[in-house]
From TrEMBL:
SUPFAM superfamilies: L domain-like (SSF52058), Toll/Interleukin receptor TIR domain (SSF52200). Keywords: Glycoprotein, Immunity, Inflammatory response, Innate immunity, Leucine-rich repeat, Membrane, Receptor, Repeat, Signal, Transmembrane, Transmembrane helix. The gene is Tlr6_1. It comes from Chunga burmeisteri. Residues 1-28 form the signal peptide. This is Toll-like receptor.
């Protein structure tokens, strides 16, 4: 046939189809190019053999030409779609389909919006069955009349896959066998009956050739295929969105399906609570979808032992029980949208490679997960309410070491608690090593405590703190006893110009030089000396305190001997205490001999401070300077004191 003749024949075909009022719409699908109308042109190579499909929308127009060239049509199309089939035009549909005998090119037929009685429906089924059609789809079917028994002829067919969706049965009272037997005994590879409110399906009467069954969105229950041993070649069974309730019964249903590999039981009402009920699954089953049911932790007691891919998404599982039966072949496990509080270990899944735990209740995932799951290649753990804490810090650190095994990182991993960190990505959450390492924190705290104790102890020893505490206590006790014994004496009366504090080794200078020059010289100076003014019966400390308080000044004769005397230290401390408590200028320091700094004990830090800040009188070695020394000393203690008879010192009758 020449190219011109092919073009002419195609042109004639399209013009005929366009002119017929029997058909309302025509579209041609040509390998890689879609022609939305006849006028768009012809196939590029002008060859009719490239025409793959010819969908036709039927209209109730009786002006169609009866002599349409069906021979051309059946030889040039592989797919046909018809719509709006009723009892009025079903005979014309049957006449059309009868032209597609076995051996014709038509392989795919789709009927949409079919509303016929039972007789017409079975006639369509039987005609399609004996045609060249391999894939039959019928959608939105309304069966109008009563359903009766029909002896379906299953011989001589090219059918491979039969699909029915949205079937409405208006007959409320009929024998299920009359309807379901037609489909149950079909000797084809694939059968789909979906969204049809189907409540049951019969077990085939003989060994079935079904390899694929899809009963999506019906009303099937646990009674389906119980004790049915005819589905020996079935590999895929889809029972999604039905009304199954018992997981053990589902397992018993599969026990006779020797070739079953994939089972979809998602979106049912499945439960498994009875621990004493044993499950019996098909040993060949490797993929199982149990998502969107009502399963709890007990589901792990009822699973196929050879399963490789398991979907338990959207159930009520809170943990994977320890001691469960080991699923050695399981490689993919989906536990998303459950109630898990932590990542499950892999003690029961030694071959696990992919795990999904998204949208659970995991606050702080276990940091040892990858250690317990050495074969894991991908972990999906995002969209959990993570609590950003030290424990989570370990998990974040583990992610950096995992080599990108966390799917969705970092966008799907955010802090939920505490509130001030909500929305923070885990990759941006950091805590110091000290804050998260309890042992290190305790050791650090212990070391700091020991250092603090050591420093305090050193300072106490160096500054003689215990001694000062003891002196303060004695001062307080002495004052308390004085107030208790003589409550009427609220104010101390000065009796001496000065109290003399000196070392016994310097007593000769005090007795031969200091006392004579002050008491027997000009003026009337009364000095308080411990040898003559301490009251017998009282403690030395009490006598020191009383003498200092009754004296206007306190004279300290400083020398290397002085800093070696414990009692001199007492006297200096109490005098210094009076200096600050009464805010007075009562201290007079006489440096009898130079004191090398290294001789001054550490506890004499007050003496060091006084010598550094206050002016002291230095005893001159030259005799010619003694008079000036005594004059300066008398001036420092010059004051009139009341005598016993009421007169001041220095006054005469």
């Amino acid at each position: 046939m020449t190219e011109n003749m092919r073009a002419f024949r195609n042109f004639f075909l399209y013009k005929c189809l366009f002119a017929l009022t029997f058909w309302n719409h025509v579209s041609l699908s040509v390998e890689n190019e879609l022609f939305t109308s006849v006028s768009n042109g012809f196939p590029k190579d002008n060859s009719d053999k490239n025409i793959k499909s010819l969908p036709l929308l039927y209209t109730n127009n009786h002006q169609s030409k009866a002599n349409f060239d069906w021979v051309v049509l059946q030889n040039t199309t592989e797919s046909l779609s018809l719509s709006e089939i009723t009892n009025d035009n079903v005979k014309k549909l049957l006449a059309l389909l009868s032209n597609f005998r076995q051996g014709s090119r038509l392989q795919n037929l789709t009927l949409t919006n079919v509303s016929v009685d039972w007789t017409a429906l079975t006639a369509i089924f039987q005609t399609v069955w004996h045609s060249s059609i391999e894939y039959f789809n019928i959608n939105s079917v309304t069966q109008l009349s009563n359903i009766e028994s029909y002896n379906f002829d299953y011989s001589r067919t090219s059918m491979k896959a039969w699909t029915m969706k949205k079937v409405l049965i208006t007959d409320l009272y009929f024998s299920q066998d009359h309807l379901y037997k037609i489909f149950a005994d079909m000797n084809i590879a694939a059968l789909t009956i979906a969204e049809s409110e189907m409540i049951h399906m019969l077990c085939p009467s003989s060994d079935s050739s079904f390899r694929y069954l899809n009963f999506f969105k019906n009303d099937l229950t646990d009674l389906l295929f119980q004790n049915c041993d005819k589905l020996i070649q079935l590999e895929t069974l889809i029972l999604q969105r039905n009304k199954f309730e018992s997981l053990p019964k589902v397992s018993f249903m599969t026990s006779h399906m020797k070739s079953l590999k994939y089972l979809d039981m998602s979106n049912n009402l499945l439960r498994h609570d009875a621990a004493d009920v044993q499950c019996q699954w098909a040993e060949s089953l490797t993929e199982l979808d149990l998502s969107s049911n009502q399963l709890t932790d007990a589901v792990f007691e009822c699973l196929p032992v050879n399963i490789t891919k398991l979907d338990l998404q959207n159930n009520q599982i809170s943990s994977v029980p320890k001691g469960m039966a080991e699923l050695k072949s399981l490689k993919e496990l989906n536990l998303a949208s459950n109630r898990l509080a932590d990542l499950p270990g892999c003690s029961g899944f030694t071959s696990l490679e992919c795990l999904n735990t998204e949208m659970n209740l995991i606050l702080t995932p276990s940091a040892d997960f990858f250690q317990s799951c050495p074969r894991i290649r991908e972990l999906q753990a995002g969209h959990n309410p993570f609590k950003c804490s030290c424990e989570l810090q370990d998990f974040v650190r583990l992610e950096r070491q995992s080599g990108g095994k966390l799917a969705g990182w970092p966008a799907a991993y955010m802090c939920e608690y505490p509130e001030d960190l909500r929305g923070t990505q885990l990759k941006d959450f950091h805590l110091t090593e000290l804050a998260c390492n309890t042992v290190l924190l305790l050791v650090t705290a212990l070391v700091l405590t020991l250092v603090l104790v050591a420093v305090v102890a050193f300072l106490c020893i160096y500054l003689d703190v215990p001694w000062y505490l003891r002196m303060t206590w004695q001062w307080t006790q002495t004052k308390r006893r004085a107030w208790h014994n003589h409550p009427e004496e609220q104010e101390t009366v000065l009796q001496f110009h000065a109290f003399i504090s000196y070392s016994e080794r310097d007593s000769l200078w005090v007795k031969n030089e200091l006392i004579p020059n002050l008491e027997k010289g000009e003026g009337c100076v009364q000095l308080c000396q411990h040898e003559r003014n301490f009251i017998p019966g009282k403690s030395i400390v009490e006598n020191i305190i009383n003498c200092i308080e009754k004296s206007y000044k306190s004279i300290f004769v400083l020398s290397p001997n002085f800093v070696q005397s414990e009692w001199c230290h007492y006297e200096l401390y109490f005098a210094h205490h009076k200096l600050f408590s009464e805010n007075s200028n009562s201290l007079i320091l006489i440096l009898l001999e130079p004191i090398p700094p290294y001789l001054i004990p550490a506890r004499y830090h007050k003496l060091k401070a006084l010598m550094a800040k206050r002016t002291y009188l230095e005893w001159p070695k030259e005799r010619s300077k003694h008079a000036l020394f005594w004059a300066n000393l008398r001036a420092a203690i010059s004051i009139n004191l009341p005598m016993a008879d009421g007169k001041s010192c220095g006054e005469t009758d």
